[in-house]
Amino acid sequence: MPNTDWLPAAELADVPPGTAAEAVVGDAIVALVNVNGDIHALDGMCAHQGGPLGRGKLEGCTLTCPWHGWQYDAMTGQQLLSQHIRQRRYPVRIEGGTILVRLSDG
Q: Which UniProt keywords apply (predicted)?
């Protein structure tokens, strides 16, 4: 029986290295980022005012929200100015060129 906890988010080709993309996965908006070939998935709504992180600019491993410039470590979700703010991270795996994200903790 297939594991239905993993949901398709995007094609790997849609998130080339050094870019971010926004995806709707289940009922969540997810920011997909490709840091040197490694895909990471974060809560796609900025903790500041809900800006679309998946439409932000990725430089190295720093993801910048396009609305007000809040910056996060794309690999950990840590906001760069406050140790108290961290975007939720989601597990990611790649199957057949498709990025799969697991929203549940299980």
A: 2Fe-2S, Dioxygenase, Iron, Iron-sulfur, Metal-binding, Oxidoreductase
